[in-house]
């Protein structure tokens, strides 16, 4: 009798399915092409916590502007942050730039192939190192992202909460990928299966190459997996953001400190919400004009933010020296995070 759960057979089925159904991605090598490690690395960093649809235009803009890792290494960090603005999780952008420099300075612009060398690069953790080693260099590593976790949890009908079985899932994913004949394609195929067939809602099991062997499907519990502990509601925070104008109608902007939330990004001065300042320098010498009726709401990973907007005129020297001043038309070109883009929209609409 045929063993539908034999690993070489599962690998073969998955790879055949991938050959027929893989999506075209701007960072993905086409048949016969060798994957470009720069493209693989850049896309993997961008795809962390971010959807393929959101990443595509950013990836294309980056590659147009900085076609090689050497180009990115000599870019100004401000330009990189500005190009990244809107993708979120900004530490990724700073590490991207640091990593490009390290590859040029320490490796002569050539990505290291060794998994441990990859792990030592800025911003590269176990997942990304495994993804680059397998996708770019065809080494037998299994990169376990959320898609792969979902497939494995369903395939083996694992009913415990995901947070308790992450390690078990990782080991099982590695077992399913072990010694497969095409590591680069296998890694991508595994993730692709989760992204397009074994989707969070309504998995398309009838189209799945692993359906005959899938325990979650057999037990008809696939869609309920992986289970999660009930999430607590996110705490709410409140703060104030200031839209400050000088006599020439220019707007006050400052750079946030490198460390912490939105580190290194530009912002309209704000207080009261991020555990930093509760009072704004120079506020006493400014003239209050109005409070904007609408508030800005933004959801971060660990909390929800509500910002009131206050408009002020700056007069004295103190505020002038404390900030950088930009014409309104220049503001969209700055490295403003999404929450500050919302402020800009409300203040200029
Ligand atoms: Fe996922 Fe369904 Fe395939 Fe099982 S059969 S791996 S649940 S898509």
Global structural class: alpha+beta
Overall strand count:
7
Tell me about the largest β-sheet.
4 strands, mixed
Radius of gyration: 24 Å
The unreliable regions are: none
Mean pLDDT: 94
Roughly what fraction of the amino acids lie in strands? Answer: 5-15%
> What small molecules accompany the polymer chains?
iron/sulfur cluster
Amino-to-carboxy terminus distance: 69 Å
The helix content, as a percent range, equals: 40-55%
Name the shape in a single word: elongated
Order of helices and strands: HHHHHHHHHHHHEEEEEEHEH
Q: Please list the strands of the largest sheet in the order they lie side by side.
A: 4-1-6-5
Relevant terms:
349 residues, alpha+beta, four-stranded mixed beta sheet, three-stranded antiparallel beta sheet, elongated, binds iron/sulfur cluster
Overall description:
It contains 14 helices and seven strands. By secondary structure, it is of the alpha+beta class. The strands form two sheets. The chain has a four-stranded mixed beta sheet with strand order 4-1-6-5, with helices on one face. A three-stranded antiparallel beta sheet has the order 3-2-7. Helix 2 packs across helix 3 (52-65), helix 2 (37-47) packs antiparallel against helix 8 (126-136) and helix 9 (146-155) packs across helix 10 (162-177). The longest helix has 17 residues, at 91-107. The model has no long low-confidence stretch (mean pLDDT 94). Iron/sulfur cluster (SF4) binds next to helix 9 and helix 12.
């Amino acid at each position: 009798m045929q063993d539908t759960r034999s690993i070489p057979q599962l690998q073969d089925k998955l790879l055949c399915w991938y050959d027929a159904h893989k999506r075209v991605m701007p960072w993905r090598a086409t048949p016969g092409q060798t994957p470009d490690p720069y493209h693989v690395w850049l896309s993997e960093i961008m795809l962390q916590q971010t959807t393929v649809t959101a990443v595509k235009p950013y990836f294309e803009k980056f590659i147009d502007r900085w076609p090689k890792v050497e180009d990115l290494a000599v870019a100004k960090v401000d330009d990189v942050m500005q190009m990244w603005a809107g993708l979120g999780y900004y530490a990724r952008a700073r590490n991207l730039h640091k990593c490009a420099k390290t590859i040029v300075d320490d490796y002569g612009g050539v990505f290291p192939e060794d998994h441990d060398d990859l792990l030592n690069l800025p911003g590269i953790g176990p997942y990304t190192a495994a993804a680059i080693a397998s996708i770019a260099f065809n080494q037998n590593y299994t990169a376990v992202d959320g898609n792969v976790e979902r497939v494995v949890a369903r395939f083996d009908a694992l009913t415990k909460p995901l947070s308790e079985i992450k390690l078990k899932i990782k080991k099982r994913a590695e077992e399913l990928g072990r010694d497969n004949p095409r590591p680069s394609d296998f890694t991508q195929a595994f993730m692709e299966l989760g992204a397009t067939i074994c989707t969070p809602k309504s998995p398309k099991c009838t189209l799945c190459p692993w359906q005959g062997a899938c325990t979650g499907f057999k037990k008809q519990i696939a869609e309920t997996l992986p289970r999660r502990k009930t999430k607590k509601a996110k705490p709410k925070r409140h703060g104030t953001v200031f839209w400050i104008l000088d006599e020439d109608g220019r707007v006050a902007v400052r750079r946030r400190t490198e460390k912490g939330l939105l580190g290194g990004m530009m912002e309209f001065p704000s207080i009261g919400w991020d555990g930093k300042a509760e009072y704004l320098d120079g506020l006493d010498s400014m003239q209050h004009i109005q409070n904007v009726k609408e508030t800005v709401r933004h959801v971060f990973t660990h909390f929800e933010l509500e910002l009131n907007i206050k408009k002020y005129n700056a007069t004295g020297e103190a505020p002038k020296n404390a900030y950088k001043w930009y014409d309104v038309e220049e503001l969209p070109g700055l490295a403003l995070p999404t929450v500050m883009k919302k402020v800009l929209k409300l203040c200029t609409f």
